[in-house]
């Protein structure tokens, strides 16, 4: 199996696991929420309808990401569709990676006392060890799941 197909498969799994966690949280599950820390944790303790709507929406967006990756398996008759998928997924991968990287950087500055995000040590640890690297890994899966085909 070629690297882009492996990354596509891993990207779909990454997206669906992440979506499942969002749906779990939207239904009131609390496992792992404390590791996010700060205002997200505070809002999850007594969620407003708008907060729950956002959590549901993030789950749906993650499922859409998995669907976009699965669309790479289709042999499209129109090259424009394949090219659009290529760019949407490539740019999404860059965004996911940069989001994780920038969060990692700013949370590191918070841990060093340069910034103040009001994250406790527990949340800071999990954000630096798990959450931000998880975003970056997902970005790499998306980025490397597409290959440019000449002539399309």
From the N-terminal CA to the C-terminal CA, the straight-line distance is 22 Å
How many strand elements?
0
Shape: globular
Put simply, the count of helices is: 5
The oligomeric state is single chain
- Beta-sheet strand percentage? under 5%
Q: How would you characterize the largest beta sheet? A: none
- Provide the gyration radius in Å: 17 Å
Please bin the fraction of helical residues: over 70%
Q: What is the string of SSEs from the N terminus onward?
A: HHHHH
Instruction: Assign the structural class, choosing from mainly alpha, mainly beta, alpha/beta, alpha+beta, or little secondary structure.
Output: mainly alpha
Can you put this structure into words, describing what you see?
It is a single chain. This protein is mainly α and 152 residues long. Helices cover 72% and strands 0% of the residues. It is built from five helices and no strands. Helix 1 packs antiparallel against helix 3 and helix 4 runs antiparallel to helix 5.
Give a brief description.
The protein is mainly alpha-helical and 152 residues long. The chain is 72% helix and 0% strand.
Furnish the topology, listing elements before pairings.
Layout: H1 3-26, H2 38-45, H3 49-70, H4 79-111, H5 121-143
Task: Supply the key terms.
single chain; 152 residues; mainly alpha; 5 helices; 0% strand
């Amino acid at each position: 199996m070629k690297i882009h197909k492996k990354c596509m498969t891993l990207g779909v799994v990454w997206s669906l696991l992440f979506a499942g966690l969002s749906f779990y949280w939207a239904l009131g599950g609390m496992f792992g929420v404390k590791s996010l820390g700060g205002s997200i944790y505070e809002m999850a303790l007594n969620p407003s309808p708008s907060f729950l709507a956002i959590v549901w929406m993030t789950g749906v967006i993650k499922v859409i990401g998995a669907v976009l990756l699965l669309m790479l398996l289709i042999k499209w008759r129109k090259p424009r569709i394949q090219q659009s998928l290529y760019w949407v997924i490539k740019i999404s991968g860059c965004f996911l990676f940069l989001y994780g990287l920038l969060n990692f950087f700013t949370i590191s500055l918070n841990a060093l006392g340069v910034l103040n995000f009001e994250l406790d040590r527990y949340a800071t640890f999990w954000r630096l060890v798990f959450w931000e690297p998880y975003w970056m890994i997902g970005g790499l899966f998306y980025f490397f799941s597409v290959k440019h085909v000449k002539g399309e």
